[in-house]
Design brief:
By secondary structure, the chain is mainly β. It is built from 5 helices and 36 strands. Among the domains are: 165 residues, no CATH class; 55 residues, no CATH class; 41 residues, no CATH class; 83 residues, Winged helix-like DNA-binding domain superfamily/Winged helix DNA-binding domain (Arc Repressor Mutant, subunit A); 107 residues, Macroglobulin (MG2) domain (Immunoglobulin-like, Sandwich). 9% of the residues lie in helices and 27% in strands. Helix 3 packs across helix 5. The N terminus is likely disordered.
Amino acid sequence: MRTKKFLKHLFLGALLLSTGKMVGQVTTASNVAAGPNDFLGWNNNAVNNFPLRIRHDRNQPIQWFTNSIQRMRLMQTVTGVTINTYTNQDLSGNLGIGAFTSGNVPRPFSLLHLDNGGTQFSGYRPWFRPGMTITNGSDLAWIGLKNEGYDINHLTLAWADNTLQDGPDLFKVVFLAKPGTTGTAGTLNGLETMRIQPAIGGTESFLGIGDWFTAGANPTERLDLLNGRARIRQLPDDPEVQAKYKIMVVDDSPVGSAERGVVKWLDPASLPGGTGCEWTLQNSGVPGPSVPHNVYTAVGSSDICPDDLDAVGVGTSSPKAKLHVFTTTPGYFGNDVILGHYKSDQSGGRAVNGAASSALSTTFSNNTLTGVQGSAENGKYSTGVAGRAINWDTSPGITQDVIGVSGMAKAYGNANRVIGVYGYGGGASNGSNDWAAYFDGRGYLTSGPWQPSDMDLKVGVEELDPGQMAAALLELQPKTYGYNVEGYPSMNLPAGVQRGLISQEVEAVFPDLVTDVIHPAQVDSAGNVIEPELHFKAMNYQGFIPVLIAGFQHQQQVLEQQRAMIADLQAKVANCCAADQGMAPQDVPTQKDAPQTGDLQEQRLLVIPNPVADLTTLEYYVPHAGKVSLSVSTSDGKPLGTLREEQAEPGVYSYQWNTTRLAAGTYICTFLLDGAVVVKRAVKVK
């Protein structure tokens, strides 16, 4: 007995009250004149022996400390407290475990309050008292009995966040297994089985079933099943049915009906209007039994069959046409929204056939009618309508026509305009690759191409200078060539010998007749580039027509002038006026060594050097004896003078031409031999 008493005194003597008094010390009015009574259940009197009794008559909380840190407190009588705008709150007798160091959480809010450094009271409510509060940082949770009037007390779990914009914090249900065991439950965070997420704004919440923590996501619906399947084994009002074509519905009976909102099985035929207006598709029964198939996607106001006023939407609840098919995941179905596939040996087959007509074939409609319209927008490669026709049979004489796109428009004298195929292109970023039609291969037009040329359509009209056009034409170098067919297979370039000009050479003389073209990249159905796009230059051969006309006009003008000059020379020769007219010393003809016979078979004129600075040599070949004339005129045909006139023997002659006094520009040098004309262009550069 003495040992037990010693141990009891030893244990109780280790407790420390908030007043600093030790166990076994009794302070009463008789030994503390001004203080209240503090008593901890042992004073050798039978009345005060254990069980432990703490009496604290001062109106202060009882607090427990270790290492000078408050670990627990029991509140005294405390009323009239204001918490989170709620006034007159009674905190008397609340027991709090924790330090309660924040000014927002200075004391326990409910009969039991666990505080781990809580800093916010924003979630506090007056009905917290009969329960347990938990505070940690800026967040709060509570579990207890929530009184909702009279003796109605609901077991309630509540949680709060200081602000929804920071979270909001979730309510989670987590299963934990022994660390290291197989599965998510054995990890540090465990297996989350369910969570509730309040929506920002505090007006609704979402319940999610599944391991949302591992998925790294949150529920977005009122009830959101993360994965797996949901099963209803027994519906409320009838057993699970085995028959086909039953659907599960939610009863939409009027408010107040016991059936409203009940999930149940239903035969589609029993739906409103299900006696014949449910779009029954007839089945001939071949092969197999004849079974009607019902479609319930009709949208509209029609209550009669065959629902001519209703539309069908596939992938959309608001169809914009009689049949409106919509998808945002075409790859799941093979990248086609609507696929027409016709496979038969019967004649006249069409995979897709579009027809638009007036109500009656004999009536006329003022509306716009389009048989087939294609539209493609905002794609890297957008094609409104694509036509493709292939015949793999290589037997000769079998296939007659393979036409990718065929257009036909026919009127009977009563239409203002008839167009078989109409194309428009515009808006290219470089301003020059706008093509209404682009053909890789030969083109054929029975009536030829036509271009707008009406005066009313043109501005800034100016005459072409015939002399300048003639001079420019002399700079062009026509060539023969062949296309690199194998190097550029996708362009379908023509084979064989071609005749024409080189765009880069023409661009230096007529830049407006040359443009840059981009041959589009060749891609497969998935958008993968098979052949990259090709940049090249193209030429407007039709634009040479006015240039050639102007050059021809200039040639005619020069010929007329030369004819006049020849006539004048012939008159002078006839009158024996071939005497010296006061030529300068450099006018004396210089005959070179006689060339070989083969070199004098044609009449020629050379300008050496050309372009001309100050002096140049006009070298001309006289293949046979005759009357020679060497003259110079401006590019527009204005004569500048005759450099030489004489009767010459066969040979090579030269004339030193001084151009110091001439302005920079183009000049025409003319060599006549018995009326035969050779013309050369000389360019004075300074």
